[in-house]
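Supplementary Note 3. Input sequence used for the single-chain structure prediction.
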Amino acid sequence: MLLRETDRQIGLIYKLTSCIRYSRYARYTDHELSELLVQRIY
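The predicted structure, written as discrete structure tokens, is reproduced below.
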């Protein structure tokens, strides 16, 4: 929970998603990269 709150304050996931190229087709994916990172990190 501490990491999640820190992320909300400083935008950690947003910064990570801006560094990673996500080359999947949008029409074939249901989840954004940020949602996938949140699931793995938390």
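The chain has one domain: 2-41. Residues 25 and 40 are 21 Å apart (CA to CA).
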